[in-house]
Known about the structure:
This protein is of the alpha+beta class. The chain has helices spanning 56-68, 128-143, 159-170, 176-186, and strands at 10-21, 24-31, 41-42, 45-47, 74-83, 92-100, 113-117, 189-197, 205-210.
Amino acid sequence: MAADSYPPVICTVDVVLLTLRDGALHVVLHKRDREPFRGALALPGGYVHQQEDQGAEDAAMRVLRDKAGIVSPYLEQLATLSGPGRDPRGWSVSIAYYALVPLQLVPVDAAHLRVLPADRLPTLPFDHGRIVELAVSRVRVKSHYSSLPVHLCGERFTLPQLQSVYEAVLGEPVNKVSFRRKMDELAMLEPIDGELELGRANRPAQLYRVRREFRRTLSLSERGLGT
């Protein structure tokens, strides 16, 4: 069979956009506006545009902007999924990414978007349910030894607030002493001079922000939390 008689392979990107709501990981889904699965909730995704995208990551960032209205502060490649059965349109390959973003940057009132708990999602089209499982697992494992959860915070936060974010991502409590030691080890934070959180029963708490060099990347540690 001649090479030009083979149907083209479908090449797409899909993004698991994770945020925190009510102390738990949530996934941002959008309502598909075309077939297949028109009207179904799915991950933000789309074709790679060979004339426009310099690479798959460019395509993923474009998809987030176009379908979720978000410029993600952190985006990482997750996995490549492929085969003849994952898309009814034909043999396809999807380069999957995950992104972390504070809830205040998600346009939650947009009619085409839904923010749903990661552990209570409806059945998703294609293999998007599997992609979400991979992303949540990756984020939880990586959070033990990196600064990853900080990308779910706003620009300013206290250490107790950051610890709560870590606990929400990991799904388990974290020892305060171990957490503070890990933050010192990661060296990703800087205190905001003269900025304290007031109005609480306890003494005012120092406000921190992520150091510039770690705002779009990670600080890594050789040891996990609690070790």
